[in-house]
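Lab notebook, bench 4. The sequencing result for the construct came back, and we need a structural model before the next group meeting so we can plan mutations. Quick request posted to the team channel:

Model the 3D structure of this chain.
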Amino acid sequence: MPLRLAAESAGTPVYVYSRGAIETAFCEFDRALARLPHTVCYAVKANGNLSLLRLLARLGSGFDIVSGGELDRLRRIGVSGKKIVFNGVGKSREEIREALAYSPSGKARARGGILLFNVESEAELEILAEEAARNVARGGARPSVSIRVNPDVSAGGHPHISTGRHQHKFGVDWVQARRLYIGPGRSRWLEWRGISAHIGSQITSLAPFRRALGRLAGFVRELAAAGVAIDYLDFGGGLGVRYTDESLPSRAEYARAVAAMVRPLKCHLLLEPGRSIVAPAGVLLTRVLYTKQNRGKTFVIVDAAMNDLIRPALYGAVHPITRVTREGDGARSRRVPVDIAGPVCETGDCFLRDWPLEPVAPGDILAIWSTGAYGFVQSSNYNSRLRSAEVLVEGKRFRVIRRRESRADLVRHESGD
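Done. Here's the predicted structure in C-alpha cell form:
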C-alpha cells in the first residue's frame, strides 16, 4: 500500500503500522521457542494501541505490563489474567489490588488475578503480602510471585535504557533476593513461582544475554537446593532492532540461544519482547512545511515534532528519514546534508542533523522509519499540539486505529476558571 495514500487520507503527522510485519515478528519468536514450554509476553509499553494488542492476543501472545493503565487496556480487549505478567519498580497499592482481582470481564472476582507479579523491592513485597492476605480472606487464591533480580550485567543501547547494573533502580541484588525467597512468614499469603531479570533495551549482541542467563541459572539452582521450586523464568526482553547500520542477531537466533540455556532448568520461559516486534513495523509520516538556508546550512521544517517522536531528543536516537516516492518520480537526485526539524520552540526539536536527503519541496511526504515502538506512546501535547492519528495497514487496505486529537480534546479536562 503506497504510504502517500495514508498521508492523504489520515493527514500528517501520522503513524502507520504493518499488520503483516507484526504478525511475522511475533511468530518468529514463538516458532523458535516451540520445543520449550514458553509464553511470549509482548511488552505493552512499547506500543499499547488497543488494535495492536488485540491483534497480538489473537496470535496467542501473553503480555508484560508496568501499570494499572496497561492492565485496564488488556481488560478492555478481554485478555485472560493467566496471560499477564506485572512488572515495574513502583506498583501502587491500588494497582496491586486491581491486579489481584483482575477479571477480563471487568467485574472484580476474588478468584481472579494475573499469572505473575514480578516484585522489585522488599517494601513492595510487604505491600503485596498485605493485599494478598485480604484477598485470601475473601476467598481468593494466593498470588504467584517472582523477584526481579539485578544481575549486574551491563547492556543496552543508551544509559537511559540499561537496567541491569547495581546502580540502576530496577530489581534487587541476589543476596537480598535469596533471603526474601527462603525467609519465613510470607509463604502463607504468597506462592513463589518464578524468578525474573531484565538487563536493558536495544541490545545488539547475544553476549550480555548469555552472561545474565548464566547468573540467573545459578540462582535457580541455589533456590532448588534450598527447597524453593521455580516454575517460571522471566527473562524480560531487550533484543535490539536495526535503525541504521546496527549488526544484530535475528529474533530466531536470540530465542534459540535463550532456550538452549533455559532448557536444562526445566522452567517455563517467559520472554517479553516489545521493540523487536513493533519498531520495524511502523513509520511516522510527516509533511514538509518549509525549506530554508542559513549561512550555507539547509533546514527542512516538517509538521512532525519532538512531541510526536521524542526519541531523537531524549536518547539521541537515529531514525532514518526518506522521501516517500511519488508516482512519476524518476532517478534519484543528488542527496545533500540537511537538518530535519520540527516546529516546536526547542533547539532539541530536530530529528536528524546533516542527514543526506534528496531535494524536497513544501508538501512532500517524508517517512521516519522504525518508529513503531516508543513513538506514539511517548508523545505529548507540548506547545498545545494535537497528538497524531494511528493507521494499521492490512494487506492492500488500511484503517485508522486512533483518530487525530482535536483542539477540544486538548482542554477537555481543564476547568477554565
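The chain has twelve helices and 17 strands.
Will bring this to the meeting.
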